[in-house]
């Protein structure tokens, strides 16, 4: 607010000095309001040469007045940005550490947990992301020799398959339907696994972790 108030006052004093002391023409023409200020001064003074000097002086003085305040404001915003970046970096490090710990814990999948068989249905909105996880599970179970078959479906498609399933994995975009899905899985004595976006992506990349979760759910059922 300070430069916004004092700059026009000082500019008026300088203009008065140029007109009264240096003999520059005053404003002799009324110009349209959109006329840019530097050009407007030159034209309104009837193209007086001293007005060009006045324009240069005003620009220099105004810059000197505004510069410290702009620098101070820039420093404040820079400090805020640094604080935000530091906080985000800390959160990212914490999230990365937590995710790594979760993956390490889930990946501690020993051979004894392979001794189970299960039918798994992965459900998402359109069948695309569920297919990714189902394919990852089938690939891992084939490598591990686990008797598990994963099937992918879109929500509402072939829902009668749930009666033959041991575990139903609900993709994160279908979280709003988990209560309805829970009623269906309870009806057919199947276990429902819900996931967050991060968990779901991790499961598609880490087959052992996915098998661990499924094995734990089946143990709970038994």
Q: Structural class of the helices, strands and pairings? A: alpha/beta
How far the N terminus sits from the C terminus, by CA atoms, comes to 72 Å
Q: Which CATH class of the largest domain?
A: Alpha Beta
Oligomeric assembly: single chain
H/E element sequence:
HHHEHEEHEHH
User: For the residues shown, what is the average pLDDT?
Assistant: 82
Number of domain modules: 2
Secondary structure: helix percent: 55-70%
* CATH-derived topology of the largest domain: Rossmann fold
Number of helix segments?
A: 7
Tell me what the CATH architecture of the largest domain is. 3-Layer(aba) Sandwich
The poorly predicted ranges are: 106-111
Spatial arrangement of strands, main beta sheet = 2-1-3-4
Shape: rod-shaped
The count of β-strands is 4
Percent range for β-strand residues: 5-15%
**Biggest sheet statistics:** 4 strands, parallel
CA-based gyration radius: 36 Å
CATH superfamily of the largest domain: Response regulator
Structure write-up:
Helices cover 62% and strands 11% of the residues. The protein is an alpha/beta fold and 222 residues long. It has 2 domains: 1-80, no CATH class; 118-221, Response regulator (Rossmann fold, 3-Layer(aba) Sandwich), CATH 3.40.50. It has a 4-stranded parallel beta sheet, sandwiched between helices. Strand 1, helix 4 and strand 2 form a beta-alpha-beta unit. Helix 3 packs across helix 7. The longest helix has 59 residues, at 49-107. It is rod-shaped.
């Amino acid at each position: 607010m300070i430069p916004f108030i004092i700059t026009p006052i000082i500019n008026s004093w300088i203009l008065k000095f140029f007109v009264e002391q240096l003999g520059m023409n005053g404003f002799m023409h009324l110009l349209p309001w959109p006329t840019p200020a530097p050009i407007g001064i030159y034209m309104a003074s009837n193209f007086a040469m001293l007005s060009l000097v006045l324009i240069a002086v005003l620009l220099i003085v105004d810059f000197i007045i505004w510069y410290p305040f702009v620098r101070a404001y820039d420093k404040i915003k820079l400090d805020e940005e640094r604080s935000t970046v530091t906080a985000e970096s800390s959160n990212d490090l914490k999230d990365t550490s937590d995710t790594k710990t979760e993956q390490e814990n889930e990946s501690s999948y020993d051979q004894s947990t392979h001794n189970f068989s299960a039918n798994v249905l992965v459900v998402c909105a359109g069948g695309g992301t569920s297919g990714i996880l189902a394919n990852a599970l089938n690939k891992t179970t084939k490598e591990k020799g686990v008797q598990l078959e994963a099937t992918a479906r879109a929500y509402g498609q072939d829902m009668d398959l749930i009666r033959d399933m041991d575990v139903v994995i609900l993709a994160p975009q279908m979280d709003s339907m988990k209560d309805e899905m829970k009623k269906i899985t309870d009806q057919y004595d199947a276990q429902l696994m819900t996931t967050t976006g991060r968990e779901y992506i991790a499961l598609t990349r880490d087959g052992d972790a996915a098998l661990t979760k499924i094995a734990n759910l089946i143990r709970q059922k038994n």
